[in-house]
Structures are given as structure tokens and as C-alpha cells.
């Protein structure tokens, strides 16, 4: 079958393209931004890419058009598909019907930590010799790629996003996946562009829970009011909990700038010790969730812990991009106040009070641009010694609120810039030896990481 994918260079749709190719389909695709690294990864697999959404692409005559949720009405190619009555389907629905149908699906859902936890779980299964299929929203250094598929494997790890499926299907993506093992990592308000309130998201999670069989397994934090409400609406599946007194618990042993160690407890009994380069309670909880889910797939806690001891992390999750004059520049995907606070608190615990933390943020997600979380932004940055905020005043990523006003509770620690070059110069000018700069955005942020490193190199000590 020949499939043509609209929005192919997004993380999810690009991964789906690689999976479709591995399943034996002829794959082509298009997007408004065809650029590396996704374009390189796709072209290396023989996938022909077209820049833009010109209606003439219907002349390719694919058997099916697969539609990403970046596509909306008014898109010229989509309008041509509708006018000509051509067959189309959403990415999540195609994946569910054509790939996941005969798989033991291990889905990782939640507001935060989906990518990291999915990568941990896939790595555990890989280390156990189970060669899982997977589709995650980032590249773990250990796994090398973000998506992989072989029909010989019957395990599939998938990052289960609650965002809507397509312009014609407003259900969350994850309702199409039919997991047998489901991690519900956490749940709070997000995606203000499509959900009016937390209750609306809870309804989507309730729909997901309804699809998990009674022989399956749900894995959830011991304490989460929103998930309590979700499961009170109906739960037909055994539940494992993780947390301080959950079925799976972590006992911190050491937290330092270079490593952390913690003991894993299963129902009060010691299962082993994880020692790795990750930090923070959030990563300990991600690990517990991954260990619990892997156990449902037959991996012993001891083997799971041994795998995590070799886990190096995921790109854009506190990824060190470089060091200049003993100033470290990190890249992190945090873009929600809870994730920002968690990232900074973890960094503070590792670095101690002696070293300065400089937070550089781009409030770029739809939720942040709309201002739904603006009141929570300043408190989330309390652990930073200096805060730099980049806010565009026009265009696609323009903020709908005043960053100077929102960050005013931070006083002189906060600095707002509307020009990227001015922001880079200001950060570099104020940074000093021993500082840690943490750049937080869910986008490319104009290549700020290398710009900062170059500017730091050129700035006198």
C-alpha cells in the first residue's frame, strides 16, 4: 500500500512514517517545514518528501492519505482530498488499526514525563532481550531512534498523548491505542487551546481506562487527585501504585552533581539500587512506573534495575549542550510551570546553594501563549538565581500576556527580551564561571544553545 502522510516531519508522524515503511508500505509525505533531523532520518529510509501542502500532490494517487493534527480546514491539499472524495485517516487511527492490533501495547500517558518514561520502558524491554517496537516523542541515546517496528515483536511501547487526534476527530490520540499495560504518570491541566478545564482532560483519561482489559495493568502514582477522580468513574483493571508508600517506592540514597542513587522497594521489600546520571524525584517516579510496567511484560525488577543503571537519558531532557569557561549550558523540554519547577528543583538539589542557576525560558506552547498558566510561571522559577524570558510580540508564537508583569514577583532576578540576539548577549554578559544555564522550551528556540555557547566564548571573563 502507498500512503502519503500530511505533516510528516512532526515527531509523532515522522515516527509513524518509519513504522509504516518497516511494515512494508510505500511511504511519501509532505510538511510545511521539511528540514533535519527528521527529514534526514526519513530520506535515509527511502521516504520521498515534498515541501508544503500543494493540492497537486493528489496526483501521486496514494491508496490512503494519513492526516496529522497539524492539518486543519483550509489546508489546500486537505481541501483537494475532501473535494475529490479521496480516502483519508488520522495517524493515531491508522496506527491502531494497522500496527497495534496484534501487539501487547504498553502506553505511557500523563501530563509530564511521557517521553522519558517511554524511553526507560523501551530500554528495559530491549535490555531484557525482548526487542520491543516503540514510538516515543524523543530520541534516547541508548535506543538511537525515536521509532522502530518489526512484525516479529509482539511488544509495543508508545507515548500516549492526550492531545486531539485530528481536525475531524477530537478524541485524544491515546484512545486509538488499546493498551494492555497503561502508565498514567500524572494528570493536571494543560492544552488550553483544546481543553476548557481539567475535567475535560479527565474525561479523556476515563475513556482510555475503559479500553484497558481486565487482564491488563494500570500503573499510577499513589497520590494524584485528578487520577483518583478518573478511576472513580470506573476501573476494570488491576492497579499498581508508585510513590512514597506505593506498591513501588524509591528510597533516595545520594544526590550529587554527577549522579544519583536510590533503592527500589516493591511492597516494602528491597528490589535493588539504581545508580545513574539522572536527578530528581520526578525521574525516580518515572523509573518506578517503567519498572512496574515492565514487570507486567515479564521483566523482573532486578533486570529492570540493571537496565536503568545503563540508561543515559533522553535528548532535550537536561541534556548538556556544552561548557565554556566552566559555564554549563543545558537544554530541557520543560514548558509547563510544573515541569519548569521540577527541572529547577532537581538541578538545585544536585548543584547545592553555592552554584548559580540561570533559567532561560521561551513560553511557546499553546497553553503558555494563551496565558492559562501565567499566574504559575513566576513561582515555578523560584529556584533560579537569574531568569531570562523570551517573548515574541508578533507572529505565530506571540504571547497573549505581558511577561514583565507576570514575572514582576521575581524582582531584579527577571529579565525579559523580545529580540533573541539581545537575550543571548544579556545572558552571556551576566554569566560567570561556575554557573549552570538551563534553557527551557518545547521548540528549537532559534538555535539559542549554540548561540549562547558562541557568545560565551567571545565574552571576556
TrEMBL record:
Annotated source species: Paracandidimonas soli
Gene Ontology molecular function, alphabetical: ATP binding; UDP-N-acetylmuramate-L-alanyl-gamma-D-glutamyl-meso-2,6-diaminoheptanedioate ligase activity
Domain Mur ligase central: 108-294
Residue ranges of every copy of the Mur ligase N-terminal catalytic domain listed in the record: 2-99
Role summary: Reutilizes the intact tripeptide L-alanyl-gamma-D-glutamyl-meso-diaminopimelate by linking it to UDP-N-acetylmuramate.
Pfam families, sorted: Mur_ligase, Mur_ligase_C, Mur_ligase_M
Domain Mur ligase C-terminal residues, every copy: 316-443
SUPFAM superfamilies assigned to the protein according to its UniProt record, in alphabetical order: MurCD N-terminal domain, MurD-like peptide ligases, catalytic domain, MurD-like peptide ligases, peptide-binding domain
Biological or metabolic pathway of the protein: Cell wall biogenesis; peptidoglycan recycling
Binding site for ATP: 110-116
PANTHER family cross-referenced by the UniProt entry: UDP-N-ACETYLMURAMATE--L-ALANINE LIGASE-RELATED, UDP-N-ACETYLMURAMATE--L-ALANYL-GAMMA-D-GLUTAMYL-MESO-2,6-DIAMINOHEPTANDIOATE LIGASE
Protein name: UDP-N-acetylmuramate--L-alanyl-gamma-D-glutamyl-meso-2,6-diaminoheptandioate ligase
UniProtKB keywords: ATP-binding, Cell cycle, Cell division, Cell shape, Cell wall biogenesis/degradation, Ligase, Magnesium, Nucleotide-binding, Peptidoglycan synthesis
Cofactor(s) required, per the database record: Mg(2+)
UniProt family annotation: Belongs to the MurCDEF family. Mpl subfamily.
GO BP field: cell division; cell wall organization; peptidoglycan biosynthetic process; peptidoglycan turnover; regulation of cell shape
Statement: the UniProt record of this protein carries the keyword ATP-binding: yes
Enzyme Commission numbers on file: 6.3.2.45
EC supergroup of this enzyme: ligase
Known catalytic reactions: UDP-N-acetyl-alpha-D-muramate + L-alanyl-gamma-D-glutamyl-meso-2,6-diaminopimelate + ATP = UDP-N-acetyl-alpha-D-muramoyl-L-alanyl-gamma-D-glutamyl-meso-2,6-diaminopimelate + ADP + phosphate + H(+)
Amino acid at each position: 500500500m502507498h500512503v502519503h502522510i500530511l505533516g510528516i516531519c512532526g515527531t509523532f508522524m515522522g515516527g509513524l512514517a518509519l513504522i509504516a515503511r518497516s511494515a512494508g508500505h510505500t511511504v511519501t509525505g509532505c510538511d510545511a517545514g521539511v528540514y533535519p533531523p527528521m527529514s534526514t532520518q526519513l530520506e535515509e529510509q527511502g521516504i520521498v518528501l515534498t515541501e508544503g501542502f500543494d493540492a497537486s500532490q493528489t496526483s501521486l494517487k496514494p491508496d490512503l492519505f494519513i492526516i496529522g493534527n497539524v492539518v486543519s480546514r483550509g489546508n489546500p491539499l486537505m481541501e483537494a482530498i475532501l473535494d475529490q472524495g479521496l480516502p483519508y485517516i488520522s495517524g493515531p487511527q491508522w496506527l491502531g488499526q494497522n500496527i497495534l492490533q496484534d501487539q501487547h501495547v504498553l502506553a505511557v500517558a500523563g501530563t509530564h514525563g511521557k517521553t522519558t518514561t517511554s524511553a526507560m520502558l523501551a530500554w528495559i524491554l530491549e535490555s531484557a532481550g525482548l526487542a520491543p517496537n516503540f514510538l516515543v516523542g524523543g530520541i534516547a541515546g541508548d535506543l538511537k531512534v525515536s521509532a522502530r517496528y518489526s512484525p516479529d515483536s509482539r511488544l509495543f511501547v508508545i507515548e500516549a498523548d492526550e492531545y486531539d487526534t485530528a481536525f475531524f476527530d477530537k478524541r485524544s490520540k491515546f484512545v486509538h491505542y488499546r493498551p494492555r499495560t497503561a502508565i498514567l504518570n500524572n494528570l493536571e491541566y494543560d492544552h488550553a487551546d483544546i481543553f476548557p478545564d481539567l475535567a475535560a482532560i479527565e474525561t479523556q483519561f476515563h475513556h482510555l481506562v475503559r479500553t484497558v482489559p481486565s487482564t491488563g495493568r494500570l500503573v499510577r502514582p499513589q497520590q494524584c487527585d485528578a487520577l483518583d477522580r478518573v478511576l472513580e468513574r470506573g476501573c476494570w483493571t488491576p492497579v499498581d501504585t508508585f510513590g512514597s508508600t506505593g506498591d513501588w517506592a524509591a528510597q533516595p540514597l545520594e544526590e550529587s552533581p554527577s549522579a544519583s542513587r536510590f533503592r527500589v522497594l516493591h511492597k516494602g521489600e528491597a528490589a535493588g539500587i539504581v545508580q545513574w546520571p539522572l536527578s530528581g524525584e520526578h525521574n525516580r517516579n518515572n523509573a518506578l512506573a517503567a519498572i512496574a510496567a515492565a514487570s507486567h511484560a515479564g521483566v523482573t525488577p532486578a533486570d529492570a534495575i540493571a537496565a536503568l543503571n545503563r540508561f543515559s537519558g533522553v535528548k532535550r531532557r537536561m541534556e548538556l549542550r556544552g561548557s565554556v569557561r566552566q559555564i554549563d549550558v543545558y537544554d530541557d523540554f520543560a514548558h509547563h510551570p510544573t515541569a519548569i519547577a521540577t527541572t529547577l528543583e532537581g538541578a538545585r538539589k544536585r548543584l547545592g546553594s553555592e552554584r548559580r542557576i540561570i533559567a532561560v525560558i521561551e513560553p511557546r506552547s499553546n497553553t503558555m501563549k494563551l496565558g492559562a498558566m501565567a499566574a504559575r510561571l513566576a513561582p515555578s522559577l523560584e529556584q533560579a538565581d537569574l531568569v531570562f524570558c523570551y517573548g515574541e510580540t508578533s507572529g505565530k508564537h506571540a504571547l497573549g500576556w505581558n511577561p514583565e508583569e507576570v514575572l514582576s514577583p521575581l524582582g531584579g532576578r527577571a529579565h525579559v527580551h523580545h529580540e533573541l540576539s539581545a537575550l543571548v548577549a544579556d545572558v552571556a554578559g551576566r554569566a560567570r564561571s561556575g554557573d549552570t544555564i538551563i534553557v527551557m522550551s518545547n521548540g528549537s528556540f532559534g538555535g539559542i544553545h549554540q548561540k549562547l555557547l558562541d557568545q560565551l566564548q567571545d565574552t571576556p571573563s
